[in-house]
Amino acid sequence: MSTANIEEASISCPLRAKEQDAELALVISDMQRLAKVENFNRVVSKVRPISITTEKLVCELIIETEHVNTKVMGPYALLIAHHCKGTLHGGFSATLTDIITARAVRVSVKDRGLASVELSVSYLLPVRLGDRIEIEATVLKIGTNLAFAEIEFRRPDGQFHSCSTNLRRKKDIKRLP
Predict the structure, then answer these.
(1) Which of 25, 97, 104, 126 could form an S-S bond across to 57 if both were Cys, CB 3.0 to 4.6 Å?
(2) Does the pLDDT of residue 23 top 80, yes or no?
(3) What is the CA radius of gyration of the chain?
(4) What pLDDT does 9 receive?
């Protein structure tokens, strides 16, 4: 069996309960570490990982003021005010896509770093301030050099806020940036 086939087969092997707990603890500790950094990655500070397998990472987030579009001031306020109604910021959703899919892929790819090559987000419905959303990242395929993942953000009514895909390149480094 080639290395590529072994890597692709590894994502279909289920984690045992102890391994699942250990992986979830690692993701939780990673999120807590990121919450304390001074770079942009700190935006995940309020994301709460709930469950993890080799194929899925499920998190939840209560939308707070720091996550939403703000009121616009200045000469363009009237032109774009209708877009800023306290709804989840699209850039924040894209950032969560990048960070959470990396953690989902990390369960199976431990020996190499990961970098996003392509990220695509389709925004379907708004999420409002105070809503609790479920975020589910799914690892679709892990090949020799690339990993494919998708993520869904679901509103409290079960409808999708956004659906995203992320193509990640595996790099020969020991740690994520």
Answers:
(1) 104
(2) yes
(3) 17
(4) 36
